[in-house]
Write a structure and sequence with these properties.
This protein has 448 residues and is mainly β. It has helices at residues 5-39, 100-104, 265-270, and strands at 45-55, 66-69, 72-75, 80-81, 89-90, 95-97, 130-138, 148-156, 178-179, 182-186, 188-197, 205-211, 229-241, 244-251, 273-280, 292-294, 299-302, 331-340, 345-353, 362-368, 386-390, 395-403, 418-419, 422-430, 435-446. Keywords: Membrane, Transmembrane, Transmembrane helix.
């Protein structure tokens, strides 16, 4: 067959054109696929298995704070300090074990009370009110592992922290809302602080307040009828990520200056639920006024300012969501956040309040695929919470995941902040007769 340059050129051109179409289609398909993956809902499978009930042998009324110090797994449950409503407490203690089961199985009489700073007199600087350790961060720069920072939930009343007109700190005993023990009892105000230890948790010094809501944001009578908090920030869970410590917490204050006459419950709801703040790890040694709250686009709001909650975790008003000051408003609270090495994502457990005084019988779970919480809005990109457990007739508080005993060893250093595919579910269970911290289920995650 004779060679024809024209025919060859046309055939070559046509073939190249077809190849170009195919390549273009492949590029478009790849982009569509990638875009679809980005938008696809992240729904890991969750298998809940009932096991023999384990009852913790000491007092818990908070997230279980824990850390590996050397080859010892340490836990810090309990409450410490002054409390006009319930009385003073010395229940903030620690136990240690070679495994998680050994630490959790410690009998109450064998728990040890650490050295904690005394309460200061009203009007004087220092520690005021009662504290609960909720998370512990271990300073990675200390190779001994003995430098620890405890994030504590702190509760005060006008009696323990009276208002100071000069500093603007403290609370005015005017139209104060009802507390947990009836009409004559006061509500507390919660805030979050930091303590530091250099001896592996055996003694602590107070480093001051991490975040707080001040007097102008408190929600008072006659609008606050939920018998829980007068306002504030509390029930935190902290995780280190990059150069920051991220604090997930409950927001109970009004998103602005509270005014009895112009108050509206829908406006209160807009600023409440689970929120996020962060502080540079380098600032933990002197943390006061260093933290920043999420402001809607970045971490720009001062530690005592009005931030924005995680929208994905708010319960819409149309679905029964409402403000924390209402006995009928539904909201999620008490987050417990961990990194899951199997799913390669963050996992958040939370309780759901459906009545006064945080009454609610269910536990929910949410996920965040973004390892870097500091980039863009990654810290806000949580999935819609899904039901993990419901026990009608019970009140469930402070849920957390704990690694299985065989994985929670000194080599892996798994804890409630980091674990794998399987875990034990713990929670505070109040069924009217008992108020125990228990585990009666395992959780197994499956990839979506």
């Amino acid at each position: 067959m004779a060679y024809s340059p024209g025919l060859f050129s046309f055939t070559k051109y046509t073939a190249m054109k077809k190849i170009g179409y195919v390549v273009a289609l492949l590029v478009i398909a790849t982009c569509i696929y990638a875009f679809t993956l980005k938008l696809a809902p992240f729904r890991p499978q969750i298998k809940l298995t009932h096991i023999k009930k384990f009852v913790f042998k000491s007092f818990v009324d908070c997230n279980m704070s824990e850390v590996w110090v050397g080859d010892k797994f340490m836990i810090f449950p309990g409450k410490y300090g002054e409390d006009p409503l319930w009385g003073p407490s010395h229940n903030l203690k620690y136990a240690a074990g070679n495994t998680i089961d050994e630490a959790f199985s410690t009998k109450e009489k064998h728990f040890i009370e650490p050295k904690l700073p005394p309460n200061a007199a009203p009007g004087n600087p220092g520690l005021h009110g009662a504290v609960w350790f909720e998370s512990v961060y271990q300073d990675v720069k200390d190779t001994s592992g003995r430098t620890l920072f405890a994030l504590y939930h702190n509760e005060n009343y006008p009696e323990t922290l009276p208002y100071d007109a000069v500093t603007g700190k403290g609370y005015k005993n005017v139209k104060w809302p009802q507390g947990l023990k009836g009409p004559s009892s006061p509500s507390a105000v919660c805030r979050i602080g930091i303590m530091k230890s250099t001896d592996g948790g055996r003694s602590w010094e107070n480093r001051g307040i991490f975040i707080e809501d001040e007097q102008p944001r408190l929600i008072l009578r006659p609008n606050n009828t939920a018998a829980n908090f007068a306002g504030g920030t509390g029930d935190p869970s902290a995780v280190a990520n990059g150069e920051y410590l991220y604090l997930f917490y409950g927001e109970y204050g009004y998103p602005g200056v509270y005014n009895e006459k112009t108050y509206h419950p829908d406006e209160e709801w807009k600023g409440q639920c689970i929120s996020v703040a962060r502080i540079a790890l380098a600032d933990l040694y002197n943390p006061v006024a260093k933290a920043k709250r999420w402001g809607g686009k970045a971490f720009t709001v001062p530690y005592n300012g009005v931030g924005k909650p995680v929208t994905a975790i708010q319960i819409p008003l149309a679905a029964g969501g409402g403000p924390a000051s209402s006995p009928k408003g539904k909201y999620y609270w008490g987050p417990s956040v961990s990194w899951n090495t199997y799913l390669n994502c963050w996992v958040m457990l939370m309780a759901k309040a459906e009545g006064p005084s945080w009454k609610g019988s269910s536990i929910y779970v949410s996920f965040n695929r973004n390892h870097d919480l500091g980039r863009g809005s990654n810290s806000q990109q949580w999935t819609k919470p899904v039901l993990l457990l419901n026990k009608p007739g019970h009140t469930l508080w402070y849920p957390s995941l704990q690694p299985l005993n065989e994985e929670a060893n000194a080599k892996n250093k798994y804890s409630s902040l980091k674990m794998g595919q399987k875990a034990r579910l713990f929670f505070k269970d109040n069924d009217g007769d008992k108020n125990d911290y228990v585990s009666e289920y395992t959780v197994e995650f499956g990839k979506y």
